[in-house]
Design goal:
three-stranded mixed β-sheet, 2 helices
């Protein structure tokens, strides 16, 4: 808040500040969790941590294969949810 006041001295704040943190879900190893959950219509593609954008295309392709009943191609290590 002090830095904001320094940068924007004429900023008029309404109400109390609301603090937020955009945490990324991650597994301990950053290996993603991809697959079906115990709910038949809920599939997950999560846990990449900081590698989310880096791994997004491959993970999405693996998830699409799993949803379609195919073996993920190309094969890469990930956690089955």
């Amino acid at each position: 808040m002090q830095r904001v006041r320094q940068l924007f001295p004429r900023l008029q704040v309404e109400g109390e500040p609301e603090f937020w943190c955009g945490l990324r879900p991650a597994t301990p190893s950053n290996v993603p969790c991809i697959g079906r959950t115990r709910y038949s219509n809920l599939w997950l593609n999560t846990g990449h941590g900081t590698l989310g954008w880096t791994m997004s295309c491959g993970s999405a392709a693996a998830l699409a294969d799993l949803v379609s009943g195919r073996r993920p191609e190309p094969e890469f290590p990930f956690l089955r949810c």
